[in-house]
Design brief:
The chain is mostly helical and about 150 residues long. Helices cover about 60% and strands about 10% of the residues. The chain has one domain.
Length: about 150
């Protein structure tokens, strides 16, 4: 197998790992989108409505990050001497494909944690100014769920 074809197969497996993480994260296949909600903040009687938006990378974003992670791991950890010195091509093992799949999954996980950290930072002022109720928005676990809970309470 030539090196270009090997990189393509590795990229495919890594993107599959990123897609898998995206499906697990969102509970299904969603496309990238911007979640926009109107939220009431401030004390009762003096509340004002503000619009809060959060960006969701969706499975396409996770697949792309997984692809980049997997190809990077493949390039760093595959034996470069085999690629440089072999005229017959490159042998792709299940170990390399499994590593690419795992790297895609792990890379998507790391990027997702960074995205959620930024989303929580964006929601922090809204959460500080909202009045607490029995259904705390932080109990949702994800920033998007907290934003939806804030928008749905009256």
């Amino acid at each position: 197998m030539n090196v270009i074809l090997a990189l393509f197969v590795v990229a495919l497996f890594a993107a599959l790992g990123g897609t898998g993480y995206g499906v697990l994260t969102y509970g299904g296949a969603i496309l990238p989108k911007k979640e926009v909600q109107k939220v009431n903040v401030g004390p009762k009687g003096n509340q004002k409505e503000i619009e809060v938006s959060l960006w969701l990378p969706g499975i396409i974003g996770h697949a792309f990050v997984g692809l980049l992670s997997g190809v990077t791991i493949f390039c760093v950890y595959s034996a470069p001497s085999v690629v440089v010195t072999t005229n017959n091509g490159f042998n792709l093992t299940f170990y390399m494909l499994g590593s690419a799949l795992l790297a895609g999954l792990g890379g998507s996980t790391a990027i997702n944690q960074l995205v959620e950290k930024r989303q929580w930072a964006k929601l922090a002022p809204v959460l500080e100014n909202s009045t607490p109720t029995s259904g705390s928005p932080v109990a949702g676990g994800k920033p998007v769920e907290a934003l939806r809970m804030l928008a749905n309470r009256a």
